[in-house]
Specification:
Strand order of the largest sheet: 3-4-5-6
Order of helices and strands: HEEEEEEHHHHHHHH
Largest sheet: 4 strands, antiparallel
Strand content: 15-25%
Distance between the termini: 83 Å
Helix content: 40-55%
Number of helices: 9
Radius of gyration: 25 Å
Number of strands: 6
Length: about 270
């Protein structure tokens, strides 16, 4: 490869790194599950090998993977790793990580940035708008599930529905946002604020699986897939319930009166 080609390629890589560094959502500090690699940069000749960590959860599909990795030097002690998800037929998308050479002149590289950011599951819009805390806890639980840490995931999903139920109670059930509600046991909240039997049962089961996962030894063996089925049912019910409440709030008063007075329903 000619010197001019090397210059052009390195310039493009450096530009790519500079663009990544402008994206705040992927900055250092994001929790990242990683695996170790030792490679030599592909665009330099006779270069020494470097040890570094790479993300092993695909940010596109959320699967735990052993990503195909290529390392490149862009100058000024900056390196970029190009990674490909190996989930054939499902993903196979690329993602990237940026590193700095260690100050002690060792052969280790320090992780700085990743793009895209960590995988997150999209919950229904009405749930996202009502309870950001539920979304945060749900995504933490999903990250644990992707790593096959099912006990941690079960606890996390249980906490996520508690946040959702209490936020729902505050907005739609006139519950006071105070210490009393925050400390109220989840079962009491289910009994008081969920008036649909299917909602209450599905929430109860998610709670029970989460509670069971916290005990040592566990009180009973549980099927994590079964908890996820109940969770999906509960989130579906709650999304529709929140949507229904929001629509009712915006209905003109003349339409609501038709439901308030039996005599007015004759037409």
């Amino acid at each position: 490869m000619s010197n001019r080609s090397n210059y052009v390629n390195n310039s493009l890589l450096l530009l790519f790194v500079e663009v990544i560094m402008l994206l705040p959502k992927i900055r250092k500090g994001i929790a990242m599950q990683s695996a170790s690699r030792t490679l030599s940069p592909q665009n330099t000749h006779g270069s020494k090998s470097y040890s570094f960590v790479v993300p092993n959860i695909c940010p596109h599909c959320g699967k735990l993977v052993e990503a195909k990795t290529s390392l490149y030097s862009v100058g000024n002690d900056v390196f970029v790793a190009f990674l490909n998800c190996p989930e054939y037929g499902e993903c196979r998308k690329a993602f990237f990580a940026v590193y700095l050479a260690s100050a002690d002149d060792s052969n280790s590289l320090q992780f700085m940035y990743m793009y895209p950011g960590p995988y997150q599951t999209e919950l229904p819009e009405h749930i996202r708008n009502l309870s950001p805390r539920c979304v945060e806890l749900y995504n933490q639980a999903k990250a644990a599930e992707n790593l096959k840490h099912f006990d941690l995931a079960a606890c996390g999903y249980r906490n996520a529905i508690e946040a959702l139920v209490k936020d729902f109670a505050i907005k739609y059930k006139d519950a006071a946002s105070d210490e009393k509600l925050l400390r109220k046991p989840l079962q009491n909240c289910i009994n008081e604020y969920l008036d649909n039997l299917d909602e209450a049962v599905s929430a109860y089961m998610v709670k029970e699986f989460g509670n069971n996962a916290t005990h040592y030894p566990q009180l009973e063996q549980f099927d994590f897939t079964e908890q996820m089925n109940y969770l999906d049912i509960f989130l579906s019910y709650m999304s529709n319930k929140i949507k229904t409440h929001d629509i009712a709030i915006t209905l003109p008063q003349k339409h609501l009166q038709k439901f308030a007075s039996p005599a007015s329903q004759a037409d």
